[in-house]
């Protein structure tokens, strides 16, 4: 019976199978990406024996106070080590004959040797790299950016002296691997490192392995001990989050897409099952009359949908592997290599579950078979007496064409089905448009306002202790430069926020924030010396909000500040603050930041290069370039996922409307023949069907646009919330973002046209 149903209406059956297959394949790919990401991250952290706490420190470092601190806290610290890194200018690194000057001010290059106890830099085989003299191990970020493979040559030129190294390994760095981390470690042999150490400045990477659950106690103890802390500080949970961010965003997006596609499939299946019950009511009545129970009839009918689901599962298995390969990054795929069994199992389980859900819905809907008695089936045209209402006659005094009035009546006569179709189109439009808009928002230049950064042309950083008086010289140069329209300076300090239940360190930026303002989630920026703005995560940790007060500890002196605003920040571990003035002792300075706007017509790239050349202690970059090199990989992966979502939404709408059109034509075949007898041409009947599709698609397009604008900021904010972001307004659509919704709606209309190609033959039904 299932095969006979497929042969009678192959277009409907093929459409349903493809609908199930697409939703199942998307679900499987999303789950596989998520499992692969989590597995790869955990495997990397296990192989590298990643630290639980990291403190960067530029400048001199005495080992004795640090060793004494560790000895006094053996209950919370299992091990520690200090790695000395050499700071290399981007322009001094050349790969394939091209210098890395484009990333100057964006990526900090660190030359290190392999560690001895933990925080290993591992190769592609998962073991710590062993670099011989004349060789160099390159981080995966640079290997991907410059297409580096083993055996390629890299030149490092310091003070005019160039040395060539051979790439021996591609490094997987649990601590600094992701593109969002602005430092990258290159591994050298001990002799090569010692040779370059005579010419390059140093930076210390202090790492700790902690006892289980002792992160907060350690942070408080380290702060009270007053140990070196004039650089960024992160903990193990943040390292894991950042490492899994890019693939995690893609996985979450894919799972959301699969849920939306599954919802559309279920809505379409509901229409199909109910229509089939109405069409087959007489046949079901005859089966009941000859002795079949309603359970037997339901089982027979359910078998047909189970056959469809089985075929859909086979098609999904053919689709899920290439889709997963597109979504999973190459680095993640390599890291999860030995754990691929769990990934494949999760993928297959997701495909099976996603294929079984429509069968479960069909089983639920087929319970209506018990309502069809032999007498009712032979005397009523549908499943129940209430399924059809009396249709009002057409009014002939309206100026609208008859075809338009027939199309409108066809929608209003089955209003529930029309509403379901409009909701499905709205789902599909939002499914296609929302990922595109989210990707465009993250890629936009003003997205930096969600990173705790004001909008400017250039940004310059000067680390504390790199060069005495470097900040004053740069400020004086900017003030006298005719190309500079305006600039602002700020100094960041390490301070502690004292809350009722806990104490947290944050990077407090002190300076005038009104020249280059942020986009505040709540409240406004600080104006008075006793006012403070906090990032979202810092405010949550402290348990305060706008209008409340908080204690700030700087260099042992505590002062009270009023919270004036809360802003999103995905830098500094998502925990930062901004103030006009740091009262009392200034505490531990971290770095100086210069935000610069140039006059119209001034080349930003050239000016950044000039400033970097004139002020070697400063890292100068264009803000657009900073966003591109830190978020570029995330944006590219999201763009791939959003393109897949867009294509899936368009194909699904094509199939849904083709299936719906064929079902509707089969149900209304008698009415269509009557219209043919009254003189309607085949083209006239197709016009009525097309007008119905256009009406539903247009209403669905409007609904999808409203849903995208209403849900977009919240969805993007929820995605970014775990590392300091929040609800963010979507940028105005441009490029592909403008046509995704209309293309999905057009696919729905095209599906209706395909279904209307077949029209009933002209028969005498008198």
Strand content: 15-25%
Amino- and carboxy-terminal Cα gap: 32 Å
Strands, count: 21
Quote the average pLDDT.
78
Strand order of the largest sheet: 4-3-7-8-6-9-5-2-10-1-11
Structural class assignment: alpha+beta
What composes the largest sheet?
11 strands, mixed
Shape: elongated
Q: How many distinct helices?
A: 22
User: Uncertain segments of ≥5 residues (pLDDT<50)?
Assistant: 382-388
Walk me through this protein's architecture:
This protein has 766 residues and is an alpha+beta fold. Helix content is 51%, strand content 19%. The chain has 22 helices and 21 strands. The chain has an eleven-stranded mixed β-sheet. Strands 13-14-19-16-18-17 form a six-stranded mixed β-barrel. Strand 7 (153-158) and strand 8 (161-171) form a beta hairpin. Helix 15 (415-443) packs antiparallel against helix 19 and helix 15 packs across helix 21 (682-720). The two termini are 32 Å apart. The model is unreliable at 382-388 (pLDDT under 50).
Secondary structure: elements and pairs:
Elements: H1 2-8, H2 10-48, E1 53-58, H3 63-72, E2 77-88, E3 93-95, E4 98-99, E5 108-112, E6 135-139, H4 140-146, E7 153-158, E8 161-171, E9 183-188, H5 190-197, E10 202-210, H6 215-225, E11 233-235, H7 236-243, H8 245-279, H9 281-289, H10 294-327, H11 330-335, H12 340-365, H13 374-379, H14 402-413, H15 415-443, E12 458-463, H16 470-480, E13 484-498, E14 503-511, E15 520-523, E16 531-535, H17 536-542, E17 549-554, E18 557-567, E19 576-579, E20 588-598, H18 604-614, E21 619-622, H19 623-667, H20 669-677, H21 682-720, H22 736-755
Parallel strand pairs: 5-9, 6-8, 14-19, 16-18
Antiparallel strand pairs: 1-10, 1-11, 2-5, 2-10, 3-4, 3-7, 6-9, 7-8, 12-20, 12-21, 13-14, 13-17, 13-20, 15-18, 16-19, 17-18
């Amino acid at each position: 019976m299932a095969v006979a149903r497929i042969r009678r209406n192959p277009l409907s059956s093929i459409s349903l199978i493809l609908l199930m297959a697409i939703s199942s394949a998307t679900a499987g790919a999303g789950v596989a990406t998520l499992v692969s990401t989590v597995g790869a991250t955990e495997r990397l952290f296990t192989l590298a024996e990643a630290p639980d706490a990291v403190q960067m420190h530029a400048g001199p470092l005495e080992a004795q106070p640090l060793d004494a601190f560790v000895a006094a806290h053996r209950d919370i610290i299992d091990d520690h080590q200090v790695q000395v890194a050499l700071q290399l200018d981007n322009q001094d690194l050349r790969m394939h004959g091209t210098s890395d000057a484009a990333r100057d001010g964006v990526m900090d290059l660190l030359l290190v040797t392999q560690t001895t106890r933990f925080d290993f830099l591992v190769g592609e085989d998962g073991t710590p790299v062993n670099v011989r003299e004349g060789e160099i191990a390159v981080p995966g970020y640079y290997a991907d950016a410059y297409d580096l493979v083993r055996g390629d040559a890299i030149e490092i030129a310091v003070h005019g002296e160039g040395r060539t190294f051979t790439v021996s390994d591609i490094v997987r760095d649990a601590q600094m691997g992701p593109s969002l981390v602005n430092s990258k470690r290159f591994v050298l042999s001990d002799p090569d490192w010692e040779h370059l150490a005579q010419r390059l400045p140093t930076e210390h990477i202090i790492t700790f392995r902690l006892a289980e659950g002792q992160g907060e106690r350690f942070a408080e103890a380290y702060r009270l001990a007053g140990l070196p802390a004039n650089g960024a500080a992160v903990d193990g949970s943040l390292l894991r989050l950042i490492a899994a961010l890019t693939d995690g965003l893609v996985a979450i997006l894919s799972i959301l897409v699969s849920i939306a596609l599954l919802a559309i499939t279920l809505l379409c299946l509901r229409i199909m099952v109910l229509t089939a019950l109405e069409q087959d009511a007489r046949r079901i009545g005859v089966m009941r009359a000859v002795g079949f129970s309603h359970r037997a009839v339901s089982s027979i009918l359910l078998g047909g949908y189970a056959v469809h689901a089985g075929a859909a599962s086979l098609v999904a298995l053919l689709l899920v592997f290439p889709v997963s390969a597109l979504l999973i990054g190459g680095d993640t795929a390599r890291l999860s290599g030995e754990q691929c069994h769990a990934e494949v199992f999760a993928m297959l389980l997701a495909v099976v579950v996603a294929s079984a859900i429509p069968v479960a819905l069909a089983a639920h809907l087929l319970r209506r078979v018990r309502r069809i008695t032999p007498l009712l089936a032979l005397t009523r045209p549908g499943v129940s007496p209430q399924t059809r209402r009396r249709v009002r006659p057409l009014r002939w005094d309206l100026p609208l064409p008859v075809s338009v009035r027939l199309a409108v009546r066809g929608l209003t006569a089955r209003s529930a089905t029309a509403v379901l179709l409009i909701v499905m189109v709205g789902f599909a439009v939002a499914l296609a448009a929302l990922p595109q808009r989210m990707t465009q928002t993250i890629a936009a230049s003003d997205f930096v306002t969600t990173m705790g950064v004001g909008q400017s042309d250039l940004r310059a950083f000067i680390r504390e202790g790199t060069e005495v008086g470097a900040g004053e010289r740069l400020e004086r140069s900017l003030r006298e430069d005719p190309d500079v329209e305006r600039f602002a300076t700020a100094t960041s300090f390490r301070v502690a926020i004292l809350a009722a239940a806990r104490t947290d360190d944050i990077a407090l930026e002190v300076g005038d924030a009104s020249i280059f303002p942020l986009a505040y989630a709540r409240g406004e920026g600080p104006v008075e010396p006793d006012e403070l703005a906090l990032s979202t995560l810092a405010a949550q940790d402290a348990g305060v909000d706008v209008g409340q007060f908080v204690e700030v500890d700087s260099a042992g002196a505590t002062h009270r500040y009023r919270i004036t605003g809360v802003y999103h920040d995905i830098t500094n571990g998502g925990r930062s603050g901004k103030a006009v003035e740091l009262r009392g002792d200034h505490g531990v300075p971290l770095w100086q930041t210069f935000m610069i706007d140039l006059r119209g017509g001034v080349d930003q790239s050239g000016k950044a290069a000039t400033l970097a050349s004139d002020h070697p202690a400063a890292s100068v970059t264009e803000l657009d370039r900073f966003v591109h090199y830190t978020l570029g990989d995330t944006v590219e992966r999201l763009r791939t996922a959003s393109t897949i979502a867009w294509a899936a939404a368009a194909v699904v709408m094509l199939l849904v409307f083709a299936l719906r059109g064929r079902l509707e034509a089969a149900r209304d075949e008698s009415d269509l023949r009557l219209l043919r007898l009254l003189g309607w041409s085949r083209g006239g009947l197709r016009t009525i069907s097309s007008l119905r599709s256009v009406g539903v698609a247009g209403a669905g397009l409007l609904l999808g646009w409203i849903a995208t604008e209403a849900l977009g900021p919240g969805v993007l904010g929820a995605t970014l919330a775990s590392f300091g972001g929040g609800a963010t307004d979507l940028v105005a659509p441009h490029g592909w973002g403008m046509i995704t919704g209309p293309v999905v709606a057009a696919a729905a209309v095209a599906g209706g046209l395909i279904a209307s190609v077949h029209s009933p033959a002209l028969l005498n039904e008198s």
